[in-house]
């Protein structure tokens, strides 16, 4: 539109004047909307970005003509109007037009106090913003004849000029100072940090002052209609007599309540008509602007004026509540409601939070690896954590880094703090899976596991049983207990996620290894289990002992005997999962980790194990030693174990099939999915498939029950992606394990990367931590290549992403674009993923319309 | 040809009869060539594969017609004729046609002894091969009237049949037994192991017997004209009177020498005319068949007959010698000479070899990681190896596995034996680089480094100073000293490699870190250094101390001070290399390994270090601990160090440039190549390039000398290959480090892979160890993608492969096809690479003609 009309250096705000947010700023646009809604907005003129930019360069518009829009002698305010209100801008300047003469006149019409106050305030603002004098010097001056005099004298002394008495000159100078402030370096950096582009423009809004000072009921206030924390309908705000604009908020002790209140006077009682009208305006805004607005108003001698209205700032919880309410009232569509919340914001709702108001005695900072707050006794081992939990005492587990042996301790701890590790270290991944607050890489700490002490950088020492708190959202550990806010899944949350699921067009499954995880997944509405890691199941003490027996087996028979013992346990694990998921798909990854993870790493552990297995210590040491690896990530694990020690997979397949038969009898028919990890060659799949098929046939025969199953491959090596056309020949599905794939594509261990990842992201070497957001250019190409090649052979092959990236909105956008069938992520990331997918689908539908 | 003529079930061997190696076998073809050369070959009929295959199935050709080619009553031999003589075949059967009646007749014409011998021999052969009787039962029988009688009686008793008296039946049965033997499972597996295809056919050659028994000068022999070990011209072989075919070789104590010899009678003296004619025949074969032939001959009552001639079996050294001789005499072209030796065979010539005749007391078997034999005192540490070497005593270094700290010890040891590791473990790679015999993964051993003992699987214990030997070609360690054969680079070797270099069309550089390596590389004719690893330079004790100081530096200044100390040392390193290479390209890889490789891993080492650096032990432990990594291969190394601790690369760049200025003054101008390791993103290259450019500018300014340099990238991560179009923007060259690239593409640590690689290759999961021969399908695709993408941006970018695969003939074929500019490999692999490239180029040229 702008293009086709003559450029106007300013425009009066009328229902039809050509005003747009991207040329005049959000405030100007919003004021136009209020005018259209016939709210009593004082006369207003909007200056577009271009005009303000010219002003900064010294080219002024015709100020006299501008003033022509207002009644002679009217006082004016100038307020900033950037494209997005969040980008900030220079402060408003009020009372432009105040001169010695107006001062005199207003003393008569509005009383001396009002006149002094209006003039002094303008002199101060002009002195500070335009003449760049020191604000402190004006602070002590009181709104009195003397005060005004002193202010004028100080101004003249400092500037060696008389205080300007020409309203046009005043206005020009104010606009120039605001225009220049916007172009300053600091202001630019600040707004860029809030997401503004480098060339973001500033509009200005020149408005007739409504005078909240003077005779009759005069004052100003701000009114909101929702609770900013919860989103519940609740009128709040303040009104102050004899004040201007937002003064009521600044000095709230001198202000009135809005709604009738036992604690003091209220607008509802003192000016019931104005109060009623404000409520009506709120309803109008809500239904016509489809938003909860905060209204800035002035009562000028009994007459209500609306100066401005902005979207009410609110918490994530409130945003969700408002969106659901508006949609339920039919004001906005469900789709629009879903678009109102950035997916990641949902994280806040899923965890305890440290009360933002709490005092923090920070003792260490690290990487905010899993959000939420927790408080508890300091413990230094998984065992101590379990003991603590047994006594019913909450605890925070502190470790150099965690290993699978710590899993049970992590399950019972309130939070986790590690000295080492990054966003995708063991501790971080597990904690996110468990929804536990976690800080990793708190490298300023000095941890002594032996002495059970934690020494902070400033020399303080904390021991076992000392209370600490952690804020996993901020990456801060604190001494003592801090107040926590409860997580909040209410009906609105349920409703909102329900809409998201309906709107979404990509499946969502969950990474779940335990019945608890599985139940949580169902609560969040996951469609199945996309990754059930089986190795955690072996870390329970009795199973661990059997595992070790298997590892130390001298003969095939001994090995088989140990696996025999594990079979019923695994069968129970799977039966439980199948029953909970009642017919929904469950994808079980066969045993993946290197065997040495099941062996002790210290001398004492080896001694105990030698005793337990009745072996010479030297044998144990030798075996542990011979299994240790230089690069365990790239070692003897996954399908490599499956091929060279096939009895393990045989046992697992049998457990899965027997559980299938059992669970199908009791409920919905189960079609288990079996996933082979760390594949790099087609033949690996063939070898495993042959044996699993044989086990299936045996179980069918023994149980005289028919069942089917789906075999697939976890694509974790670059080679598996490149050779997907081969590998898919024997696979019903391919699930991309993007954690490992990222490690291998970059040649970068996630456990070791945090030492330099910060540096790398800061220097722009990597745009983001690739373990956090999928590296679209590298790892992403492997996903696309793999998908394309797999589909070239098996067009209907099921494709998915499991692992940490599965819950990341950007990654989800990428794989959705590539037509993947589902993503799988840890339970607490499911809501985020659901919303991300819903938004993508909605935006696509809107684009097509 | 075969197609267009009527199928002939047998063909007389004449100069023009339709006989081909791929239908009648190599022997039949060779006999036809001898006939064409007018050598006195007895009448011969050749049966093609198809006929023999039919015989095996019971369909016989017209034997009467076959016999029609021979004079009535002639005795016949049947010999196998497979396509390639190396594939083997059933033994020859002689004297077919011997019957009671011929026995009587021959007693009169050739004497009784001859007749008995001929008949008995045929009865034995027939009984064993056709009637399948036990050979042992016939062994004791003497060639006499009684012997013949006993043999006939035994035959009749065992078979309950009369010995066949019809020559046609005899011939049929002999051919049938040979045809069936060929089709047996064992025979098929044996020949497949020698490279024969599953459906390889057998031809048969039926030949008139030349009788080396009977009146006058009668006998048989075999004559060769070269020394089979050296290839020198030297007549050798044996002649035995009253014998048939190859008898002279079987019982050489009863045989004559061929050339006049003080030790006994010789053919030259006893039958000078036959001897002369044989020499003439050899000359004819040599010039017309273009090969050194071994001739099987018979003198029948003074008349010389040539039964057969085959290529003289010979050692690699002899093969090379003969090829060079034939080419120098103009009998074959240089190209043909180069095609006569498989490239890998050259390895044998480059190392000491364990004398094949030596007695072996094998104490352990492992992976044959680097070829050659060595003998020396057992030592258990690099330090002990150095002490041994200082005393002038050869030693064998035995370690669990080697680390960079052992390098100096490895340099002085005669050979290396490790308990762990695979073909591409540190020990194996370094040993091949040094040309040292090496066995890795000798897992049957029990090594105690503390007690300094080596216990073998059978319980024997060896201690320091015990002598052992290793055979790195066979992967065997032996007790005591074994006799070794010298390596052999003679003039012929030089000549041959010179021809190879002329014929080749892909550059060859060498991986060399030291002046010794560089000189060796020049000796082998390498065109430059393709990979100079700089880290080994820091392992000398004084440098190590400075390195550690740098790692422990508290401030930037301390770090810079430590690097200052290293600068002159590095400058000397590079100056020496540049001077030796006199203007040839030298590609220096910047510092690559993780810093913890320079720190001690045991308590005692840390204690010593704490003392040396005057630091509390706890600080040292903490630092060592904080630098340790879960997966060092994927950790803080290469360009990641370069970006986060840029002073190291600054120092190295300065050393390189100062050395460039210095070496260019003294000799040919130097254009150093600087290679950045472990790149995964373009920005890494930009950051490093900016700093190196600045260092170059500073050095140019300080020295007032102009020089240029080339900056490139080592492509080791899959991502670098995928993003080659980006990365090449700042690179003059890309060199693919296929070791690391293979590790990351497969997700497979070369140090840990040997635990299952054997299994994997045996089960056909991987067709070959991908660290040994490039995985063309996976890693190879990344090479092709990388090359294509890089060239799309910079068409003349230099592309190469460095690392272990650079010396592998199959890998070379692959990268040559992809148009790579050069390969770089360890010095001792250069000759193999040169020959491999020459052969590829020659074959391409021949294909185009």
Automatic annotation (TrEMBL), chains A, B:
E.C. numbers: 2.7.9.1
A UniProt-annotated Pfam family: PEP-utilizers_C
Catalytic center residues: 426 (tele-phosphohistidine intermediate), 802 (proton donor)
PEP-utilising enzyme C-terminal domain boundaries: 493-840
Region (Disordered): 1-24
Organism domain of life: Bacteria
Any one Gene Ontology molecular-function term assigned to this protein's record: kinase activity
Record: residues binding substrate: 533, 589, 716, 737-740
Cofactors named for this entry: Mg(2+)
Entries under PROSITE patterns matching the protein: PEP_ENZYMES_PHOS_SITE
Keywords: Kinase, Magnesium, Metal-binding, Pyruvate, Transferase
Domain PEP-utilising enzyme mobile residue range list: 393-475
InterPro entries: ATP_grasp_subdomain_1, PEP-util_enz_mobile_dom, PEP_util_AS, PEP_util_C, Phosphohistidine_dom_sf, Pyruvate_phosphate_dikinase, Pyrv/PenolPyrv_kinase-like_dom, Pyrv_kinase-like_dom_sf
Family, per entry: Belongs to the PEP-utilizing enzyme family.
Known function: Catalyzes the reversible phosphorylation of pyruvate and phosphate.
Protein name: Pyruvate, phosphate dikinase
């Amino acid at each position: 539109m702008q293009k086709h009309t003559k450029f106007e250096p300013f425009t009066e705000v009328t229902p039809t004047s050509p005003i747009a947010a991207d040329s005049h700023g959000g405030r100007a646009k919003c004021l136009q909307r209020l005018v259209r809604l016939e709210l009593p907005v004082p006369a207003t003129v909007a200056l577009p970005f271009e005009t303000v930019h010219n002003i900064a360069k010294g080219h002024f518009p015709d100020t006299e003509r501008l003033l022509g829009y207002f009644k002679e002698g009217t006082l004016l305010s100038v307020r900033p109007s950037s494209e997005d209100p969040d980008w900030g801008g220079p402060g408003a300047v009020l009372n432009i037009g105040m001169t010695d003469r107006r001062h005199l006149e207003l003393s008569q019409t509005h009383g001396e106090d009002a006149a002094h106050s209006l003039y002094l305030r303008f002199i101060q603002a002009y002195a500070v913003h335009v003449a760049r004098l020191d604000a402190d010097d004006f602070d002590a001056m009181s709104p009195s004849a003397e005060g005004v005099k002193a202010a004028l004298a100080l101004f003249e002394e400092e500037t060696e000029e008389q205080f300007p008495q020409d309203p046009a000159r005043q206005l020009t100078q104010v606009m120039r100072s605001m225009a220049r402030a916007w172009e300053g370096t600091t202001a630019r950096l600040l707004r860029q940090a809030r997401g503004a582009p480098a060339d973001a423009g500033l509009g200005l809004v020149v408005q007739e002052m409504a005078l909240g000072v003077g005779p009759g009921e005069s004052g100003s206030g701000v009114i909101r209609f929702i609770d900013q924390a919860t989103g519940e309908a609740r009128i709040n705000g303040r009104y102050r007599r004899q004040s201007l604009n937002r003064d009521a908020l600044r000095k709230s002790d001198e202000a009135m309540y809005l709604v009738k209140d036992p604690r003091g006077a209220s607008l509802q009682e003192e000016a019931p008509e104005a109060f009623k009208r404000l409520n009506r305006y709120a309803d109008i805004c809500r239904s016509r602007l489809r938003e909860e607005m905060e209204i800035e108003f002035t009562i000028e001698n009994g007459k209500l004026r609306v100066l401005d209205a902005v979207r009410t700032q609110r918490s994530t919880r409130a945003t969700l509540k408002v969106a659901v309410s508006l949609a339920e009232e039919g004001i906005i569509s469900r789709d629009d409601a879903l678009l109102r919340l950035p997916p990641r914001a949902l994280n806040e709702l899923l965890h305890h939070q440290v009360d933002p108001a709490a005092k923090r005695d920070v003792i260490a900072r690290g990487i905010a690896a899993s959000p939420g707050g927790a408080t508890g006794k300091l413990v230094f081992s998984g065992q101590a954590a379990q003991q603590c939990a047994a006594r019913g005492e909450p605890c925070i587990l502190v470790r150099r880094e965690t290993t699978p042996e710590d899993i049970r301790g992590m399950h019972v701890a309130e939070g986790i703090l590690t000295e080492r590790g990054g966003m995708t270290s063991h501790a971080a991944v597990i904690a996110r899976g468990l929804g536990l607050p976690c800080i990793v890489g708190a490298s300023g700490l000095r941890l002594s596991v032996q002495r059970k002490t934690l020494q902070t950088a400033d020399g303080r020492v904390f021991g076992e049983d000392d209370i600490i708190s952690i804020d996993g959202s901020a990456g801060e550990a604190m001494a003592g207990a801090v107040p926590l806010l409860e997580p909040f899944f209410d009906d609105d949350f349920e409703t909102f996620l329900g809409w998201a699921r309906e709107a979404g067009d990509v499946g969502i499954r969950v990474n779940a290894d335990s019945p608890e995880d599985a139940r949580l997944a169902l609560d969040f509405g996951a469609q199945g289990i996309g990754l059930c890691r089986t190795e955690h199941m072996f870390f329970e003490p009795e199973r661990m002992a059997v595992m070790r027996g298997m590892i130390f087996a001298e003969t095939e028979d001994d090995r088989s005997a140990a696996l025999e013992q594990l079979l019923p346990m695994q069968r129970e694990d799977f039966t439980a999962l199948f029953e909970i998921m009642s017919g929904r798909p469950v994808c079980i990854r066969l045993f993946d980790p290197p065997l040495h993870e099941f062996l002790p790493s210290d001398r004492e552990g080896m001694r105990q194990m030698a005793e337990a297995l009745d072996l010479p210590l030297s044998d144990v040491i030798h075996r542990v030693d011979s299994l240790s690896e230089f690069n365990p990530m790239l070692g003897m694990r996954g399908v490599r174990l499956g091929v060279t020690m096939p009895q393990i997979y045989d046992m697992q397949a049998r457990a899965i099939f027997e559980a299938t038969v059992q669970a199908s009898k009791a409920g919905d028919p189960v079609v288990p999915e079996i996933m082979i990890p760390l594949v790099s060659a087609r033949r690996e799949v063939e070898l495993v498939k042959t044996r699993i098929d044989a086990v299936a046939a045996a179980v069918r025969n023994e149980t005289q029950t028919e069942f089917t199953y789906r075999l697939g491959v976890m694509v974790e090596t670059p080679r598996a992606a490149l050779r997907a056309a081969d590998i898919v020949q024997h696979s019903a599905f391919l699930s991309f394990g993007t954690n490992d794939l990222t490690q291998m594509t970059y040649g970068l261990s996630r456990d070791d990367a945090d030492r330099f990842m910060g540096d790398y992201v800061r220097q722009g070497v990597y745009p983001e931590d690739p373990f956090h957001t999928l590296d679209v250019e590298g790892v992403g190409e492997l996903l696309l290549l793999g998908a394309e090649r797999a589909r070239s052979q098996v067009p209907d092959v099921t494709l998915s992403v499991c692992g940490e990236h599965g819950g990341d909105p950007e990654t989800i956008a990428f794989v959705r674009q590539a037509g993947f069938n589902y993503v799988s992520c840890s339970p607490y990331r499911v809501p985020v993923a659901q919303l991300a997918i819903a938004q993508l689908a909605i935006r696509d539908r809107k684009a097509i319309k």
